[in-house]
Amino acid sequence: MAIRIDRVGRGSYALSAALTASPLSHLLLQSHVSRQPAVLAAARRSTSAGFTSVHVRVPATPLQFGEQLRLVGACNELGGWDSAAAPLLQWQEGNDWVAPVSLPPGEHACKLVLVRQDGSVAWEEGEDRLLTVPATEGGDAVTATLRYGDTTSTHVDEPHHPAEVAVEKVVMLLQRTRQLSAQMDALEHEVEQR
Fold first, then answer.
1. pLDDT (tens digit per residue) in 54-63
2. Are 82 and 71 contacting, i.e. CB atoms less than 8 angstroms apart?
3. Residue-range domain boundaries for the chain
4. CATH class in words for 52-156
5. pTM of the predicted model as reported, rounded to 2 decimal places
6. Residue 79: how many CB atoms within 10 A of its CB?
7. Of the candidates 96, 60, 59, 54, which has an alpha carbon nearest to the alpha carbon of residue 78?
8. Do the Cβ atoms of 17 and 168 come closer than 8 Å?
9. Cα torsion through 38, 39, 42, 47, rounded to 10
């Protein structure tokens, strides 16, 4: 996200934020703090509906060098029970495995599959997981946390909108900029008085 704050007068600022790397990449936010709800409404209207963005996270799962995890499930987006066609999770520091997937709302039967360095696979033991994906407003995303080896541990967080997070950060930056500007005005006034 690129943020630009322009001073347009004493104590007045114009804020521009271009969101990138999201479905909102072409949305340009121009607002003042008092217009934050309007910005959020515009951001929500600008995204497409239908599928829900799901950030899949498998925390604290150390694997052997060369091993990987895939999320395999009944729907086409999860490979249609074909582990080779299923989304590959990426390793992150802390031995977390993550993948962004877009899924239609509803219940999805799935399992984590360990892919060994030689290409062989090991399916999680136990019943199929049930990943319940909520219908969300355009652009809303959810986080699904799955514990490897425990197919009963599948938790989906409440939807959150990427624009809300971005706007909250922009608003905090704008408030801090106002504080710094007030301090600068006070210092300028002090210098002028000398």
1. 999 999 999 9
2. no
3. 2-48+161-193, 52-156
4. mainly beta
5. 0.60
6. 19
7. 54
8. no
9. -150
